[in-house]
Amino acid sequence: MISSQLSTESNAPSIEHNLPPDCFAQIFPFHFVFNRNLEIVQAGKVLQRIAPEGLIGGQLDQFFQIQRPKVGLDYDALIKKSKKLFLIESIQQGFQLKGQLMPVQTEEVIFFIGSLWVTDLCELKENGVKLQDFAIHEPTSDFLYLLQAKSTALADTTKLTEELTLKQTELEQTLQIVQDKNENLQATLQQLEATQDQLIQSEKMASLGQLIAGIAHEINTPLGAIRSSVENISDFLERNLRVLPSFFQNLTVEGNHLFGELLDSANQDRMILSSREKRKLKRGNIRMLEEQGIEQADDVADTLAELNYLEKIEAIVPRLRSPEGRQTLDMAYQFSTLLNSTKTIKTATDKAAKVVFALKSYTHFDHSGNKSTTNLINDIETVLTLYQSQLKNGVEVIRNYGPIPSVSCFHDELSQVWTNLIHNALQAMDYQGTLTLDVKQQDHQVQVKIADSGQGIPAEVMPKIFQPFFTTKPPGEGSGLGLDIVKKIVAKHEGEITVESEPGNTQFTVSIPLA
Amino acid sequence: MYGLVNKAIEEMVRSHFSDAIWEAIKQKAEVKTDTFVSLEGYPDEVTYRLVGAASEVLELSPAEVMHAFGKYWVQFTAQEGYGELMEMNGDDLPEFLENLDDLHARVGVIFPKLQPPSFDCDEADEDELTLHYHSERDGLAPMVMGLVEGLGERFETEVDVNQTHSREEGADHDQFSVKYRVKCPFH
Predict the structure, then answer these.
(1) Highest-confidence segment of A3-17, A55-69, A325-339, A469-483
(2) Percent of chain B, pLDDT > 90?
(3) CATH code for position B101
(4) How far A155 CA lies from chain B's nearest CA (Å)?
(5) What ipTM, to 2 d.p.?
(6) Is residue B134 in some structural domain?
């Protein structure tokens, strides 16, 4: 029985009520009491149940050993430690009791007030203890619930950690895959960059392929003229080579003057006359020749007309009566034809040379990879020369060229830009319309505008025109790379390309920095 | 409610049906959480949404879902580590039901956000007792019936549970009659 005196303090209000022993035993089911002889004289019901038989009346050291505090099993020594936490172990079963000693001087006994101390539910089971064996007020049960909650939390943490580790592994694997793909992409990009130059050149050649028929025509036409002129010369020489020395030897002074006069007339710029005017003059000349008694007046008038001698023929008509005069007229005519043939050959050669020069410039590929200085207008004109046959039947070319300085650039690649833009412009207007070229200096840039009068680019197509492999042309007619390449070349020059379009006017503007 | 409850619903669906059905329920309930943490407090609404979605997807009434869940809860908490604590709370069904309130009271002390229900047990007759159930939450009476049946299975006891008073019908609290009979080990 606990008496009020046990816990009274000097200034505390007095406690008058005691717990009856059975109530005490109920709220301290693991307590025990021993006397000065260290004989156990009382024990809680649960402790009695779980301890070996003979607990009551047995010696303290027979059943328990004190783990803490470090104190010998001496009654007085134990009293001195009554303010310490005691951990007492069951010698036979190994369970542990935690509590404190409460000496009762009047009865010469010491109470051990405490409870079974477990940190694992298994220990309860091993000692045949249930939760209901603990006093309701005791926190042991709650502690065990907390322990279980901690285990649950720990299990959750472990599971989450495992999941996290798994996800991290998956992430690392994914990252590795992405890295591999990235490396592959990098390699592909390098290959792409390496083939880009080839592609530009290939595109150039492809454009050339489309132009080649026109270019062939441009070269064939002067070749035909040359051939025909050479035949004329050859005929003349065959016919006249033997007689020429005697002709000039026998030529009188008067005849010599006539010959020179006729050739001068032939060499003069021809009068610009309508056919009707020509016919009228010719008729007048025939009449005059007949009046002057010139035989074959018709033929003579024709020959004079060929020699550009249509007016004032009366000055030479008297001299045409003689055989020498007629022979001189005939020879002057043949010589004038010869001269015309040589002029034709020169003109035709110049024309063919121009085309060949354009072709040579266009197909040139600079392998050095260095920029060179060029005049963009010349480059644009080269492209126009190659497109001559496509332009001459229905395309009016308007050139608005301002003064521009030379530009340091990848000349071959920029030629491809002008070719693509001009080619697209011509196709857009089906080779019928106006091609306007504006070239000027704008601040520190050269600005080239290429505009066509075609039907325009539809709004829905506009955002895609610079995408690679995008084309509105029928299969086989466009690779879809043209404008993509144009954009890349302009970007390589740190320039800019823009496009504006409406029906009847589509304009690409390319700006290339001067520096 | 604590995550443990939502986790139990998830486990019940996954083990009785399939992972795909659980994902469908979660999607219908608009629950984005991948993993419920047992001791984390979640809004009650999440649990109600999960039960509602499960009811739609599984084509069962919410009461049937809750009943099944109550039964599963006994099994689930045991496997989640609370089996030994349950063992410590009683050797048979009536003793366990008698201690059920203590169990919930202690859980409530430890987890203040939990607001666990309260139980009271009266002996009505030999092999019959009256279980009183007090909860601030609605619609969980079918779960209590499933719970008692689950405990019957745990203690190898035949049980017959009937709700005698319902809070939904105006009673002060839900009340159940529990008739029980320990199964003969030879049958």
Answers:
(1) A55-69
(2) 61
(3) 3.90.1520.10
(4) 9
(5) 0.74
(6) yes
Show which residues on chain B lie within 8 Å of chain A, measured between beta carbons: 4, 35, 37-39, 80-82, 84-85, 87-91, 99, 102, 106-107, 109-111
For residue range A497-508, what is the model confidence (pLDDT) as tens digits? 999 999 999 999
Q: Is the pTM of this model over 0.90?
A: no
Average pLDDT of chain B to the nearest whole number: 89
* pLDDT of A5: 46
Same domain, residue pair B172 and B143? yes
Residues of chain A with CATH 3.30.450.260: 4-143
Chain A hits for B81, CB-CB cut-off 8 Å, are: 148, 151-152, 155
In the prediction, which pLDDT does A8 show? 47
CATH architecture group of domain A4-143? 2-Layer Sandwich (3.30)
Q: What is the band of A7 on the pLDDT scale with cuts at 50, 70, 90? A: very low
Model confidence pLDDT, tens digit, residues A167-189: 899 999 999 999 999 999 999 88
- CB distance B155 to B93 below 8 Å: yes
- Give residue A1's pLDDT: 45
Q: Are residues B79 and B50 in the same domain?
A: no
Mind telling me how many Å the CA of B85 is from chain A's nearest CA? 7
Q: Class for domain A364-513, per CATH?
A: alpha beta
User: B89 to chain A: which residues are within 8 Å by CB?
Assistant: 130-132
Residue of A nearest to B77 (CA): A152
Domain count, chain B: 2
CB atoms within 10 A of CB A222: 20
Q: Which of A424, A349, A346, A350 is nearest to A387 (CA)?
A: A424
Position A2 scores a pLDDT of 46
Domain span(s) for CATH 3.30.565.10 in chain A? 364-513
B-chain residues within 8 Å CB-CB of A152? 4, 38-39, 80-82
Give the residue from B35, B97, B106, B114 with the most A CB atoms within 10 Å of its CB, the best one to mutate. Answer: B106
For the CA atoms of A487, A492, A495, A500, the dihedral, rounded to the nearest 10 degrees, stands at: 0
Q: How far is A165 from chain B, CA to nearest CA, in Å?
A: 15
Is B147 a domain residue?
yes
Output B148 or A245, whichever has higher pLDDT: B148
Contacts of B80 in chain A (CB under 8 A): 152, 155
Instruction: Encode pLDDT of B49-96 as tens digits.
Output: 999 999 999 999 999 999 999 999 999 988 887 888 888 888 899 999
Reported as type and span, the H/E element at residue A38 is none
- Across the interface, do B38 and A122 touch by the CB < 8 Å criterion? no
Burial of A11: CB neighbours in 10 Å, binned 0-12, 13-18, 19+:
exposed
**Residues 6 or more apart in contact with residue A361 via CB below 8 angstroms:** A379, A382, A415
pLDDT above 50: residue A496: yes
Is residue B89 exposed (0-12), middle (13-18) or buried (19+ Cβ within 10 Å)?
A: buried
Q: Which residues pair with A445 in a beta bridge?
A: A442, A513
CB nearest B84 (choices: A121, A149, A156): A121
Strand partners, A382: none
Q: Give the C-alpha separation, A287 to A424, whole Å.
A: 60
Nearest-neighbour CA in chain B from A130: distance (Å): 5
Q: Residue B150 sits in which domain range?
A: 70-182
Please indicate whether, in this complex, the C-beta atoms of A160 and B35 are within 8 angstroms of each other: yes
State whether B129 and B168 are in the same domain.
yes
Q: Nearest CA to CA, how far is A32 from chain B (Å)? A: 24
